[in-house]
Amino acid sequence: MHMTASPQRKAVKCLVWDLDHTLWDGVLLEGDQVRPFAGVPELVRELDRRGILQSIASKNDPEPALARLEQLGLKEYFLYPQIHWGNKSTSVQRIAERLNIGTDAIAFIDDTPFELDEVKSVHPQTLCINSALRPALADMAEFQPGVLTDETAMRRRMYLEDAARQAAEEAFEGPREEFLASVAMRLTLRRAEEADLDRLEELVARTNQLNTTGRIYSRSQLDAFRTSAQHDFWVAALSDIYGDYGKIGLALVSKQPGAWTIQAFLMSCRVMTRGVGSVFIQWLQKSAQQHQVALRAELIPNERNRMMIATYRFGGFQPAGKDGAVEIYQHPLTEPVRFPDYVTLHAP
């Protein structure tokens, strides 16, 4: 049975559905009164509950296909559906770009071996699944998130809010900073609490583009850091006029006499273009200045976190050596910190 994946793939963030003979029985444009296969509506809703996003890559005419999904009560579950007559590998790429995730975080389900092989040839890290395996899909390890949090259940809604933000930004005429100011972002930084641990564990497991080290910490490890006298463990939350992003980042700071080291820093990819990661780091700089300690940062470079290297370098951090695979950076802390006007910061 056709199912291909890389040997060490991560959990799926988005399932991309074909329609004809996959989500529903029959071919829509041939006049069939297509209906979802048994268990499909329940499967779609269960994956949504688990925080797994869903989209469509179908060779169909978009208007009747979307109308049928609306009639079936399923249209709302699919983000950025790609319904056209082009290659499905192109559809997968577009979906990944719109969701700001890698194609290695996508699964694609289709009934046609040709389509599965076409996607696999272009995106070798995408999990390609024959639709005959659909009844077992919910039990596959790739569709079993480690934890379910409030953010998990709201993930699709949050992406819809992101779509509204993106549309507003594209329509905005003027400097980007003016648009960011217009959405009234509120960034809250506070110490991590026990109630945050499930969400922070989820963030650590899911975030790889905006993650300075790529280290994976268990819930018990995160709790140990939270209660450690040698660490400060900070959590970031964000909201704006479009809604609440929830908890979107963390910073783990190791405290030694005379020096602090940012041992881990990560931000949700959903806020990549909002500039709040830099504000978070600026606040850490200001705190180090106030405590009259040096500020260092650890970074383990990989193929996915190049943006974090740029964030540190543009933020004024300078290379200060290596410890094996770990690159050490240090900030001179010679200039006063000036926070941007486009975000309201609430922090200790």
Q: Which key features would you list for this structure?
A:
alpha/beta, Rossmann fold, Aminopeptidase, 2 domains, eight-stranded mixed β-sheet, six-stranded mixed β-sheet, 16 strands, 33% helix
Q: Overview of this structure, please?
A:
With 348 residues, this protein is an alpha/beta fold. The chain folds into 2 domains: 3-143, 3-Layer(aba) Sandwich (Rossmann fold); 179-346, Gcn5-related N-acetyltransferase (GNAT) (Aminopeptidase, 3-Layer(aba) Sandwich). Helices cover 33% and strands 26% of the residues. The strands form 3 sheets. The chain has an 8-stranded mixed sheet with strand order 14-15-13-12-11-10-9-16, sandwiched between helices. A 6-stranded mixed sheet has the order 1-8-7-2-5-6, sandwiched between helices. The chain has a two-stranded antiparallel sheet with strand order 3-4. The longest helix is centred in the middle third of the chain and has 17 residues, at 155-171. The radius of gyration is 22 Å and the shape is elongated. Residues 4-8 have low confidence and may be disordered.
